[in-house]
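Help needed: design a sequence for this.
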């Protein structure tokens, strides 16, 4: 495959664009624009798009902030010159992936402590993005799964405020998909944080969830240093985001 040709196949757009440098605490609202996802072509070694596959890897696809961006559901970006493509997989990415001459960096996130293989390979939780005629589409996480993946990086790489802003815009999620994902998600932190944000934003689909049916572990989780404890979900959150009326 001639990767240099793919690197040249870009055009500016404003409706969608890969999430540029969506990491760090200093957030700046900028116009949503960016190159076409030229990285799409680099993610294929076979024509089967569900899930994406590298030689020697079992399950891999685009997820997190990049998946939300492909779905048109990110509302502000951080300033930065490098596009970061969030890849979720059980195994490390091949060493050559970040040597491809692209203005993008592939950032791998392990799924071993987040999803069982049954979730990673289930087409119910995946979407396809057709980026160019004649080339296979890429597989990426559905919004319900992608948001849970984003929350793995709170607060180390994604701020509470950014996560809350993303949740605000997700009023049309599928409660059935969320329920299934929360029942299988392996991360106690992610599940508690998701439920706090969902309750905080008051989306109609939240009322159809069954928090008592999910394994939320025991004990407190310190997520926000010097924050306040939310009693119901037993996580610390930023003081400025703690609402006395939020059951906590």
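Sure. Designed sequence:
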């Amino acid at each position: 495959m001639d990767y240099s040709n793919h690197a040249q196949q870009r055009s500016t757009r404003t409706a969608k664009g890969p999430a540029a440098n969506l990491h760090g605490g200093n957030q700046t609202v900028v116009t949503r624009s960016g190159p076409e996802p030229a990285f799409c072509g680099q993610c294929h070694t076979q024509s089967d798009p569900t899930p994406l596959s590298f030689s020697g890897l079992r399950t891999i696809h685009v997820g997190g902030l990049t998946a939300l961006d492909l779905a048109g559901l990110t509302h502000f970006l951080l300033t930065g010159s490098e596009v970061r493509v969030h890849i979720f997989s059980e195994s490390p990415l091949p060493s050559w992936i970040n040597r491809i001459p692209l203005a993008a960096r592939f950032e791998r996130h392990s799924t071993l402590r987040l999803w069982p293989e049954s979730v990673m390979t289930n087409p119910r939780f995946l979407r396809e993005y057709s980026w160019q005629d004649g080339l296979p589409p890429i597989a990426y996480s559905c919004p319900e799964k992608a948001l849970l993946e984003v929350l793995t990086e709170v607060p180390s790489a994604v701020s509470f405020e950014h996560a809350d802003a993303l949740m605000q815009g997700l009023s049309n999620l599928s409660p059935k998909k969320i329920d299934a994902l929360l029942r299988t998600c392996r991360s106690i932190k992610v599940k508690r944080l998701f439920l706090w944000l969902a309750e905080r934003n008051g989306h109609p689909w939240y009322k159809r969830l069954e928090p008592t049916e999910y394994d939320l572990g025991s004990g407190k989780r310190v997520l926000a240093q010097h924050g306040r404890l939310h009693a119901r979900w037993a996580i610390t959150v930023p003081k400025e985001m703690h609402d006395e009326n939020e059951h906590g």
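Strands lie at 12-13, 34-35, 60-62, 83-89, 104-110, 126-129, 138-141, 228-230, 235-237.
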